[in-house]
Amino acid sequence: MSSRMHDNVERAQGTAASQPSVTVRGIHAQIRQDIVTLRLRPGVRLSENELALRFGTSRAPVREALIRLVEEGLIEVLPQRGSFVSRISLAAMQRARFVREALEVAIVRRAVERGLSSSAQEKAVATLAEQEQAQGDPERFTLADDAFHRALADDIGIAQIWTILEREKSQFDRIRFLSLPVITPVASLIAQHRDILAAILKRDSDAAESAMRVHLSEVLKSAETLAAEHPDLILNDA
Fold this sequence. Notes:
Layout: H1 3-13, H2 24-36, E1 45-46, H3 48-55, H4 59-71, E2 75-78, E3 82-85, E4 88-89, H5 90-114, H6 118-133, H7 138-154, H8 161-168, H9 170-179, H10 186-201, H11 205-216, H12 218-229, E5 234-235
Parallel strand pairs: 4-5
Antiparallel strand pairs: 1-3, 2-3
């Protein structure tokens, strides 16, 4: 194993190597999280053999996971060279934001129409509490942030909608993580989540839609600043 890859894998792997039977979904989720949180940075080469050793599995599920990551734009394959973590594409981020906004606006409008279930309300409130506690930990905060949005998506009765969102928002997530907490104040994001939930509970679809659009526009405020500060990480191709 190259020293560069070894260092990155050591930072990224956590306890994954102790899990002898890991699924393609699990491998994909872990590598995706490592890329989004910059434990695996743009330009790092990903070896099927080294990843198979990391996850304690054969190369086949690793290869399938990498294919999914290529489809999400998180990995690029260079002929005769291999697979590498891609830079963050501002153009892809803007496309992802467009798709995510369309889906999430539809989610909150449906939530208003149907009424949010008591279990979904409890989950959403619990994620807000978790976000408050995680303000100094960007990774923990982003997981709680996703849990808030997923609680709304899971409650509206449209199967697999969160799977679609997860696939589409990878570049969005990378910019979001990089912006925390300096460029994008975490307290503002929490307040926006509270506004979204309050509008849904008041059964005000226009207010819920407006609050969601405001929330999802935060990433645009930080994108160009981050691109100027981190040209090694971000491809300004918008």
